[in-house]
């Protein structure tokens, strides 16, 4: 099987839902990182064979095949096609999987994997509002026969995880505090500077709260009475975009590209859709086994902090070293722009492996429907 290499990765800063990026049209966010990716790699844009973009809420300004409109908005060649995909929060990580699989199959040589989401302009859930407003229901008879009328939501899933693993509010808040502290240290140290393409006058992630404390978090109301969850232990509503260029060995030589990392393993697993957020655990076990690696071989892990119990349970079940898990903070501090997060996390992962000198990196995240992608890479 042919090898697939990451030869470029770039992201916008992650903005807050009312921050400076909230007014930037999603196609312009996408165009910004796509153009920057082409410029940074000096690749011949005509040679790109596809642009695969993740986006969850494909409605309004995020409709009409955002991958295609973003590429054209960047002034890039009309000959290059684009497709927009939805695997919920893992959409742009799945875009990377599809791009790498195209290269590894030998049918493609240069593919862009990307993601965009402006949750300030297109609120989460906008794409299902038609069904709700018209009383159509989100689920058909087959689903209801299997799972009944019970609540299916990421919020309930996170609370169910707290109950299953015995996590209490204070433990979640301690994790959240650590996320902000790690992110603040990374910002102060300039760890993200080379990854970010500034836009709209913003050059750093907007969501980090270096001054947060346990006392401040303790003053917040729970998301629901009797629950352990509060807004402080959940990912932030965000705006952002990211893009990664995947190349074959032949393309690396032909276009004089510099590999940043080699794609080692691509795995995908489904799990309980009611718990929804637990799939990264079995998915990681499968990915490590297929790669012939152990969790101790992984130098850096980026696992999306949709809610604190997700990375907490993953770390506990896998026996991972907490210091290697989201070493520069996660979505609780840095934000989670849904369909863009996969590409953003990969950009962070590649950057941290380079900065720290680590060999293997692993990326995973929970996804709607009870799914998870796992990507393992090796620094070139």
Automatic annotation (TrEMBL):
Q: Does the keyword ATP-binding apply?
A: no
Which key words are in the record?
A: Acyltransferase, Transferase
All residue ranges annotated as the Thiolase C-terminal domain in the record? 257-379
| UniProt xrefs under SUPFAM superfamilies | Thiolase-like
EC no.? 2.3.1.9
The family database entries (InterPro entries) matched by this protein are listed as: Thiolase, Thiolase-like, Thiolase_C, Thiolase_CS, Thiolase_N
Q: Which GO terms describe its molecular function?
A: acetyl-CoA C-acetyltransferase activity
Gene3D superfamilies, sorted: 3.40.47.10
The protein's matches in PANTHER family, at most eight in alphabetical order, are given as: ACETYL-COA C-ACYLTRANSFERASE, BLR7806 PROTEIN
The entry sums up its family as follows: Belongs to the thiolase-like superfamily. Thiolase family.
Q: How is this protein named in the record?
A: Acetyl-CoA C-acetyltransferase
The source organism is: Nocardiopsis coralli
